[in-house]
Every structure is written in C-alpha cells, then in structure tokens.
Specification:
It contains 8 helices and 14 strands. The chain has 312 residues and is α/β, with parallel strands linked by helices. The strands form 3 sheets. The chain has an 8-stranded mixed sheet, sandwiched between helices.
C-alpha cells in the first residue's frame, strides 16, 4: 500500500473503540503534591479530605533530606456529592497556595490519553499495544506517530490512526522543526497527557523537550548512565559486560540525561554476541517501558529535580 508523505491512516467510524464509561459508584481522585518539607503537611491534607467528605483509599509520602522537598500521593473517594472535582480543586487551592505546593488533582476514572511514537524498531510499540488491548494498560491512544511507514498495518489492526510524518536522512534543522510542529499539533488537538517514545530514533529539539517537560517518556536500550548513544549493546559487548539493561526516563534537552523512572537488567556472558544481547535487551526494554508508562498514568511518578520519586 502506497503512503504519501504526511499520510494519516484512520479506522472507519464503525470500528472505532467505544468511549470509556466509568462504572465506579463513587468518584475517585488522585492527589499528588510536592513542596518544601515542613511540619503538618500530612495532617492538613488528611484533614482537608475528611472535612470535604472524602475517604482515603491509599496514601504514600516521602521527604527528601537532600532537596528538602516533601512528596505525597493520595488516592481517595469523594463520598459527599456536594464536593465535585471543581469544588475540591478550588478548596484545596486555598491550602496549597500558602505552602507553595506543586500539585495536581486527577480523576481516577478518566483514562489518560497517550500518543506513541516509533521509528523502525517495533517491539516496544507492539508490547504497549498488546497491554492496551488486553486491559493491562488503561489508556486511550488517539494516535501513533512515526517517521517511517513500517507499522501502519499494526496500528490499523488496533483501530488507531497512524500518522506518517517523515524526516529524510540529512534533513535540515528547519525541516526537523516543521515536523515537530506537526507532532505538537497532534498532541494539542488530542489533549494528550503523555507522549511515549517507543524507540523513536529522532532527537527532539530543546523547544519540544521543554514543551513536553514531565509528560514525555523515552526508553533507552542501555542501563544509563553507561553506554549512551547509538548501538549500546555493541558497546557493552566490546566491554565484556555481564549485565545489560534498559532505562525509561523523562525526555529533556540533555540527551539520555532525563530523570530516570525505571530500570532493569538481564545477565549475559562471554559466549553471547551483540545480536543475542540485542534480543535479550529488547525483552527488558518492553518490561521497563511498560512499567514506567503504567506508573505515570497511575500518577505515581513525581519530578524531583534531576531525579524522580516513584510511589509503587
């Protein structure tokens, strides 16, 4: 099938996935916050929830002795119908303001919207789509974006629109920025919560990295900070490593330097060539990226400077 440049392949209206309908009997929310650590934060938050007819389902907190910041995630139900999301948001702002909190209140029943980006290596894309289809990854995927056409049929099999936004080898800076503008248009149009670089092998501009700060995750096929850049498994083989790994991290303007969300490793030995290491590593990549995405959509990941706090 021929695909012209900038082609979009969309499912027919009859086959599109039906809108998600929450079956929760009570509204559930997830509150996340960070601020300077000080006495009484947990008391204020729990007291606020009790005063507004809310019941805590689970709660986690962490005080970082180095950054002097306090982090908290609270999953709760709203049992008093007088306090909807807007009312809770407005009321909590009166507490958060004086404490200079960085905070979010999210509806736990609303599926986050995720755009997947990929180039020519599709194992992570295929894994995420399988988890999405099987209900293991409760998200909406309004689009798959690629600079190649390799996976348009895979996207079609899941009834997800495929956007081919090509970048020719040796593309100019102006061409790259124009392509990124098209990507950002899709992100804004679909009100995307998270962008996942599922082996998207293009370096994003500093402007795009800044625009997506804290809501773009990349999978790096290496156990960072070692073996950055291209062909890390070949670098690892040359060094005779006994462990290889993968790293899911937030995207920043510093290549492969963003706050790390999740990592894992697999044991290897001297008899394995770089192709075997690559095959083993790809399995690890899939698991690591899936964990990072799941924790993000469950609002378990909070930024802490160059690091992250992950409430598991």
């Amino acid at each position: 099938m021929f695909l012209p440049a900038h082609a979009t392949i969309a499912p027919s209206p009859a086959t599109r996935a039906q809108p998600f309908i929450s079956i929760m009997t009570q509204a559930e929310y997830i509150l996340t916050l960070s601020c300077l650590d000080q006495r009484g934060i947990v008391h204020r938050v729990s007291g606020f929830l009790a005063d507004h007819g809310c019941n805590i389902v689970d709660s986690a907190q962490f005080g970082d002795a180095e950054s002097k910041l306090f982090f908290m995630r609270v999953h709760f139900t709203a049992e008093d119908a007088r306090f909807d999301a807007a009312a809770l948001h407005a009321a909590f702002g009166l507490i958060a303001g004086p404490l200079e909190m960085n905070w979010q209140l999210n509806d736990a029943g609303k599926k986050p919207r995720v755009i997947l980006m990929v180039s020519k290596i599709g194992h992570c894309l295929n894994d995420l789509l399988f988890r999405y289809r099987s209900g293991l990854l409760p998200v909406e995927i309004p689009a798959i974006v690629s600079n190649h056409t390799d996976f348009y049929q895979l996207a079609a099999s899941y009834n997800i629109p495929f956007h081919h936004l090509p970048l020719a080898a040796g593309a100019s800076e102006q061409q790259k920025l124009a392509q990124e503008d098209r990507v950002m248009e899709l992100i804004e149009r679909h009100e995307v919560d998270l962008v996942v670089l599922a082996r998207y092998m293009q370096i994003l501009s500093p402007a795009m990295c800044n625009a997506l700060r804290g809501r773009a995750i990349n999978i790096h096929h290496s156990f960072l900070p070692s073996f950055k850049g291209a062909k890390p498994y070949y670098q690892a083989h040359e060094r005779g490593v006994k462990l290889i790994g993968a790293t899911a991290h937030f995207v920043t303007g510093d290549l492969d330097e963003g706050p790390i969300i999740e990592q894992d490793v697999a044991r290897v030995d001297h008899a394995m060539g770089p192709d075997t290491l690559t095959a083993i590593g790809r399995d690890v990549e899939c698991v690591v990226l899936a964990r990072a995405v799941k924790w993000f959509i469950e609002r378990r990941v909070l930024l802490n400077g160059y690091k992250s706090v992950v409430f598991k």
